[in-house]
Amino acid sequence: MCGPLPDWLKRRAVLVDPSVWPRYTRGGSDLRPVFRRLVNTLRGWDVALKILRAPDAPLDIWLRDWGPVGRVFFRYAPDYAKALYPRPAVARAREVLVRHFCVRCWAVPLVLDGGNLIHNGRVAIVTEKILRENPHLSRREIERAINSLGFERGVFIP
What is 10-26 written as a DSSP string? Predict the structure, then answer.
């Protein structure tokens, strides 16, 4: 598993400080108190934390979406926020992750935010949204691309 995602067996995690973005710190949606409690809880469990802040150029607090899945970066171009994530910003944020964690990741041209893929190491589960995000590929081609990452099987759910 690539360094930035939680590695519970090794008791490591990476978080993104929500104060980097005003939309996560205004009024009733201020995530800073929740973030502080989460940090304190994880430290109380002796989890080694890396906290990404503004100089790290994170795209968003949802690292699971734009970060790597295993050692793979999918093309991050979510239909719900295309204007928020221009390709140069995505590339810069990912370069920082690779530099921080000294891992080699490779890019896969499938459009997918990592939060839409879960796996147990053998079976990958993706939402059918991947079919809409990659209209130039058939379901079978997408399944083959996912399996080529080392999964035995890909499962699509609504």
Answer: TTEEEEE-GGGSGGGTS
Question: Which pLDDT band holds residue 43 (cuts at 50, 70, 90)?
Answer: very high
Q: Is residue 2 pLDDT above 60, yes or no?
A: no
List the Cα angle 138/119/82 in 5-degree steps: 55
Lowest mean pLDDT among 8-17, 52-61, 82-91: 8-17
Report the length, in residues, of the chain.
Answer: 158
User: Position 99: which residue type?
Assistant: R
Please name which of 148, 63, 146, 50 lies closest in space to residue 100, comparing C-alpha atoms.
Answer: 50
Determine which helix (DSSP H) or strand (DSSP E) holds 95, and give its type and residue range: helix 87-101
* CA distances for 150 relative to 6, 52, 71, 119, angstroms: 20, 29, 11, 11
Q: How far apart are CA 70 and CA 149, in angstroms?
A: 9
Average pLDDT in the chain: 84
Predicted pLDDT of residue 157: 94
Q: Are 49 and 15 in contact (CB under 8 A)?
A: yes
